[in-house]
Amino acid sequence: MKVTLGSRKNVRLNWFKQEGVPFVLKRELEFSYNENSVLVDTVTPPVYMQYSLSGLSKAIPKTNIIVFSEGLPHSYLSTLGSVGDKLLTEKVVDETMNVVDRIVKVQQGEESIITKPVPPNERHLFKEIQIHERQDTIRRKITLKNEGERLVNGIKVQFIEKKDINYSGASKEPLEADPPEYTWKVDVPPGKSVAIELVLKRDVRQTYKIERDPIPQPKLKR
Amino acid sequence: MNINPIPKRFIIFSGGGGIMERVQRVRLSTGINTFEIENVPASFDPSTATAFFEKEPEGVNILQVDVKRPDKQIVENFISREKTAASAIIQNATDLRGANRDQIIELIESAHYRRYEDMRGTLTVTIESRNECEAMLCVRYFLEDARIKWEPSLHLSIDENSGTATVEGFILAMNNSDINYPRCEVEFAEFEMQYTPGDEGFLNDLANEQVAQSVMPRNRMMKQMKRLKSLVK
Fold this sequence. Notes:
Chain A is an all-beta fold.
């Protein structure tokens, strides 16, 4: 393009305009727990949203994007650039979705004790090693509330199993169960809430070294 | 002979700087012809500056291209004095509301923001010709000036009912140098960079190199670029 670049001036150029570009607004809630966080009373994980555009005629480099809806600026996003004819914006928190993840019930499992011998170098200190194992059942309820004025459909809710925290069941069957990932698709009408209750298994394993009984010392005679 | 070829093609890099290609029809007489190119900024890279013909005429040969950047330390002393003078004009002015206010401000602003990159470098092309003829002489050089750069921006107007959007792309080109580039074909290259140059630009350490007197000039800008990602025309 022909441009006059004057000294100490910035020039804003129209680069391209393309109408009728199909887009999808993806929303995603991804969560997992560790041994401690699974017992936290309330967690408020964010829902991330991202625009996915396809059929673009121009290769777009890394840039900022201003999204307009009904003629007004709606959000300020950024992209790492297009790949082929596709463009993804970077994920941002969707403020219209309010998620509360609360603990419902903790059921402690029966404890089993396994005894193991002490390594030779510690035999003078410890009698034995005890491994206490149990499996707790934890129920958590994830409630997604749509604070906006439009129907939010197709929110991808994904639970990822971690070491010692496993999926056992849910109030709603996952759309896809590919351990360690379990995925649901949720539609939330405006002003309404949708809840998923998860049943999780927490493997608890604690190791104790049992000290030797003190050797009775002979009384010294004076 | 001094010539001022017009900028024909200017590829601006996203991280700052670019490649400039200038062209001018020149009349060659028999023997040695020397053309000194005007308005070559000191930010040009002497190690990669080239001269060539659009269509090489018969019996014409480019003998050499003389390149030189001004001494940074000396130039900076001059610039420092100019800046002091510019500040003094503003401070001592009794009335700056006259008809020439805008021109004065432009002049002072130019002096205030002047840097080494705004000074003039030397680019002289020596051509040997066996006969009198005309030719289109081109010069091409890198500009290691981080104050010349570009950035894209997108406006996305969405229609949630139809699931389609209107995408508008804009380019903001910035030229904070002292040189004008009138009506030239501009392209915009996006590079993956090793790191983004800071406010000091690419030529911050040039004075040390020049003082040593034994260091060959080197391109500082291209060293930071890993690969070309896209070229916007």
